[in-house]
Give the backbone structure.
Amino acid sequence: MKSPRCLRVHYGYVIVFCCCLMMGIDVGMSVSCAGIFYGPVSDSLGIPFDSFGLYMSIMFIFSSLLLSPMGGVMARIGARKTLSVSSAVLGVDMIAMGFFNSLWEFYVAGAVMGIALASLLYLSFPTLVNTWFRTKVGLMIGICSAASGIGGIIFNPIGGLIIDAWGWRAGYVVFGTIILLLVTPLICLLLRNTPEDKGLRPVGEGLTSTPDSSRKGPSEEGVAYRDALRMPVLYCLVLFAFILMACSTFNLFIPKYVVSMDFGIEQSSLAAAAVMAGVTGGKLVLGWINDRNCAFGVCVTTLFGVAGLILLTLFGHSFAAILCGAFLFGWEYAGCTVQTAMLTSHVFGRKDYARIYAIVSIALAAGGGLASGAWGFIAAKTSFATAFTIGCILLAGACLLGLFSLSKTPTHKKC
């Protein structure tokens, strides 16, 4: 007996589940939890924390270099194979990090991690959601993006407890094993490239009207890729994305900053978890906001980040203020994926969205690559307060760039 039509769950939601696994566990453990290892590893091996942090810069640089080739690989062999292999490589890489004794080994691991994350972090859920959904795309992107924050909330404290009890080496091995033995097999079993692979149409395709129909962004015709390359607004978006990602890498140094303010590793882990709480809530709410007012989303993303950094700078001796500042800063971190994706969609439409967003994604990776090392050197040579102040100035500029981008496109009145 067939189940009633109304009770059937479209396979697109299984795809969203797979994306959440990748973002929550793969990305959550490797990126969102990276900061809790900085102090323990650098202290254990006698490595300056700013030099150790360069492995994340290398990771972002390799991701930016591999985005275009990895997009081609995904187009040729499919998302299922590409993401399964990338997840396996990431798991093995993190396990290996638990056995390292030299700085150069972490740099090599950062390069390998960057190759894997080019598909897992940047190309996975935007590509799959846009393939499997025609309605509520923003909401689905927000849900998938929020999974990395949930992963951070869950695994930062767990990682802190593991490090405190058994050391940082055990932390890397446990994280890598979970990625390799849990996430990778599930992706391989459940993920499908297109709705046609399951004999389905995308969710919402063919609907004559939707709850969003009265406030769609740009026309689905959109702007052609070649035309977009000649539009100055594209490069405003590129700079906007670069600044957002550059400032988001403060997340890597917040645990070290908390320790420098005479708090312990457990408090530093809680601060990292507070950032992820902001990331999670921010991604979901920003998706909802952008469906209604893209300009307001730009302001919330950037100005909440400014407020968070100000709290951390001026009230760093109060742990309650640190938690509040970390939570607000998490909203800026959330905007790196949600706000850039939605802003690009609102400005350029769907016609060549994937190719245009690939350019914006390169700016995201490049911003993370340059800044994740730069902030460490600035903090080491001056202070965390100086680095946070520079971040506030950059985020204020990003706010103006985002609003300017919306004002200079013919589709801005619809968002």
User: Anything to note?
Assistant: Residues 9-200+218-414 form a domain with the Growth Hormone; Chain: A; fold (CATH 1.20.1250.20). The chain is about 75% helix and 0% strand.
